[in-house]
Amino acid sequence: MLPITEIHEGDQFSNPLFVNDPIPGNVYVVEEVNKAEKIVKVQSYNPTKGKPIMKPFWKKSTDRIFSESWRYP
Known about the structure:
- By secondary structure, the chain is an all-beta fold.
- It has strands at residues 12-14, 27-34, 39-45, 52-60.
- A 4-stranded antiparallel beta sheet has the order 1-2-3-4, with no helix packed on it.
């Protein structure tokens, strides 16, 4: 997992297993980082339409989303 200091607003993450699929998985964009609480607010997007899916949500910085292999180019 990435340390909270390496997660920034605007960073994008996606499951590497689905990035090259014909129907790619969701892309998660960091909207806010709370370093004191070590939580990150993310918004999921449909990668083919570029539209948000549901509402933003908070995840712990230790979640598997925040690993280098999940970084979306």
